[in-house]
Design brief:
Elements: E1 21-23, E2 28-32, E3 38-43, E4 50-51, E5 56-62, E6 66-70, E7 75-84, E8 90-98, H1 113-116, H2 121-130, H3 143-147, E9 155-159, H4 169-176, H5 178-191, E10 197-202, H6 206-219, E11 225-230, H7 239-247, E12 262-266, H8 267-279, E13 285-291, E14 299-304, H9 309-315, E15 326-330, E16 337-339, E17 352-357, H10 371-375, H11 382-390, H12 394-399, H13 410-414, H14 421-432
Parallel strand pairs: 1-14, 9-10, 9-12, 10-11, 13-17
Antiparallel strand pairs: 2-8, 3-5, 4-7, 5-6, 7-8, 13-14, 15-16, 15-17
The protein binds iron/sulfur cluster (2 copies).
Length: 433
C-alpha cells in the first residue's frame, strides 16, 4: 500500500508547555574550535590564561570567511581535547573552567537606541561579523554574509515553523522573549531598507500567534510585521516551502532567495541579531531542547554555548533505569545525526539532543511500494537513487537529481520496509559532489 505522508508525529508535548530552565553557570565549558564549515583555527590564549565572558579567544577559518571564537563564561583556559560536534565528528574543543565571577568583557556594552537608529547596512554587517552570528537553526552559515546582500529585499521572514518532531526551543524562546525576536527582525529590516517583515509559525501554534500579535499591536504597530500561520505538516519549515506558502514566492532549485526579494532567518538567529546589535553580545548562549523517552525529565534549557550534554542529562534527573542502551540524536530525529555516546557539547548550532531507547529495526527488502517517491517534498525518486548508489552508478545519481535532496528524512520515515533510504540519498549527494 502506498503511504503518502507529510504528517509526522511531533512529540513536542514532552517539553513545549514546561517553563525554560536556565543552566548558565556550568563548572566547565568546551568551546568547539572546528565545525562543519571551519576546519582550521588559531588560538590567542594559552592554558592557564584568564578570560572574560564574551572575550575573543581565537579565530576559526572557513573556506571563504573567518569567525571569531568567544569565551562563553569567565574563567581559566584549560586543555584542548576532542569532543563530539553535532555533525557527528570529533573536533578540537578548548576547556574554560568557570571562576563564577561572570566578568563581562569590556566590549559587551549597550548601544543607545538613537545610535542604533543611525546604523547602516555596512555597520550592522560589521557588528554581526565581529559577534560571529551564524544560522543558529543548524545551518551555521555566517549571518553577516546574508545581511550584506546587494539585492533589493522586499520581505524579511523569520522562520518560526520548527517542524522537526520533538524540538520546541524556538517555541519557548518566542514565548519567553518575543520582543528579542521582533527587535532582531526590525534591525534586519532597517539594515536592508525593507518595509515588510513576516514571522511564520505553524497553524497549530496558537499561543505563539497570540503572544506575537499582541506584542506587535501594542508596541510595534508602526512596523509592517505580520504573523503568518502555515500548514501543519512536515517539512513546512523548509525555507523554500515557507516562502512559497507565506508569500507566494517560488524560488527555483539552485537559486538564492534574495534574488527573488526575500531573505529568511531562524528564530534564534533573529534574537541573536538583536543581542549583537543592542548589547554587542556574541553568541554565548542559546535555547536548547533536551528530550526523548529515555530521560526522566525532558525540558528546554537556556545554556551557555559549550555546555556538556552529560551535565544537562544530570539536571534532567538522568536516564530512565529501564533502558540499558540509548540512542543520542543531535538535532531533530528527521535531519539530525545519531550516536550512542552522550559526550556531546552544545555548540552554537545544536538546537536539541534527543535521547531515545535504542531500538534496532531490521531492514526488509524494498517492496517497490513507491511511498518514498510519493512523499518526497523535493519530487525525487529516493528508491531509484538508492538503487543507483548500490550499483555505484554516479551518472544515474546525477540524472535523478540526488543533489536536490534537502535531507528531510521523510523517505526513511514512510518506508514500510524500514530501509534507511535517506542515508543512501545522502551518500549519493556526497558521491556526485
Ligand atoms: S530525504 Fe531527500 S530524497 Fe528523502 S524525502 Fe527528503 S528530500 Fe526526498
Ligand atoms: S524504499 Fe521503501 S518506501 Fe521506497 S519503494 Fe522501497 S519499500 Fe517503498
Amino acid at each position: 500500500m502506498i503511504k503518502k505522508s507529510r504528517k509526522v508525529r511531533d512529540y513536542k508535548e514532552l517539553t513545549r508547555a514546561l517553563p525554560t530552565q536556565s543552566y548558565l553557570d556550568p563548572e566547565m565549558v568546551y568551546i568547539h574550535l572546528q565545525n562543519g564549515r571551519c576546519k582550521t583555527y588559531d588560538l590567542y590564549v594559552d592554558e592557564g590564561d584568564h578570560v572574560d565572558f564574551g572575550e575573543v579567544i581565537g579565530v576559526r577559518h572557513g573556506g571563504f570567511f573567518e569567525q571569531p571564537i568567544h569565551a562563553t563564561i569567565s574563567g581559566t583556559i584549560g586543555k584542548v581535547g576532542k569532543k563530539l560536534h553535532r555533525t557527528g565528528r570529533k573536533v578540537d574543543c578548548i576547556e574554560i573552567k568557570n571562576d563564577f565571577k561572570n566578568t563581562f568583557h569590556k566590549n559587551i556594552t549597550d548601544r543607545p537606541d538613537h545610535v542604533i537608529d543611525k546604523l547602516t547596512q555596512d555597520d550592522m554587517v560589521e557588528i554581526l561579523k565581529e559577534n560571529a552570528l551564524v544560522g543558529l537553526g543548524g545551518s551555521g552559515f555566517p549571518s553577516y554574509i546574508k545581511l550584506a546582500t546587494k539585492e533589493k529585499i522586499d520581505h524579511v521572514v523569520v522562520n518560526a515553523v520548527e517542524c522537526e518532531p520533538y524540538l520546541s526551543s524556538d517555541y519557548r524562546l518566542i514565548l519567553d522573549h518575543p520582543e528579542d525576536v521582533i527587535m532582531g527582525l526590525k534591525y534586519v529590516m532597517q539594515a536592508l531598507d525593507c518595509n515588510h517583515g513576516i514571522i511564520a509559525i505553524k497553524s497549530d501554534k496558537n499561543p505563539l500567534y497570540e503572544v506575537l500579535t499582541q506584542v506587535i499591536e501594542r508596541r510595534y504597530s508602526d512596523l509592517n510585521i505580520e504573523v503568518v500561520r502555515l500548514g501543519n505538516y512536515y517539512p513546512q519549515g523548509w525555507e523554500i516551502e515557507v516562502f512559497k506558502n507565506a508569500l507566494g514566492i517560488e524560488v527555483p532549485h539552485g537559486e538564492l532567495p534574495m534574488k527573488y526579494g526575500v531573505l529568511g532567518f531562524n528564530v534564534s538567529t533573529t534574537a541573536g541579531i538583536y543581542n549583537a546589535v543592542k548589547h554587542n553580545l556574541p553568541v554565548v548562549e542559546r535555547y536548547f531542547t533536551l528530550t526523548g523517552d529515555a530521560i526522566n525529565y525532558p525540558q528546554n534549557y537556556r545554556v551557555r554555548v559549550g555546555t556538556s550534554v552529560q551535565d544537562l542529562i544530570r539536571q534532567s534527573d538522568g536516564y530512565k533505569e529501564e533502558y540499558d542502551e540509548v540512542l543520542v540524536v543531535m538535532g531533530g530525529p528527521m535531519m539530525g545525526v545519531s550516536t550512542v555516546s552522550d559526550d556531546v557539547i552544545v555548540s552554537k548550532t545544536t538546537t536539541s539532543v534527543i535521547v531515545l531507547k535504542n531500538t534496532e529495526y531490521k531492514e526488509e527488502p524494498c517492496v517497490r511500494c513507491g511511498s518514498c517517491v510519493y512523499s518526497c517534498p523535493a519530487h525525487l525518486e529516493p528508491v531509484q537513487i538508492m538503487n543507483a548508489v548500490k550499483r555505484n552508478d554516479k551518472d544515474q545519481m546525477r540524472s535523478l537529481n540526488a543533489d536536490r535532496c534537502i535531507e528531510c528524512g521523510l523517505c526513511a520515515y514512510v518506508c514500510t520496509s524500514k530501509i534507511h533510504v535517506t542515508d543512501y540519498v545522502r551518500k549519493a549527494k556526497r558521491l556526485i559532489r
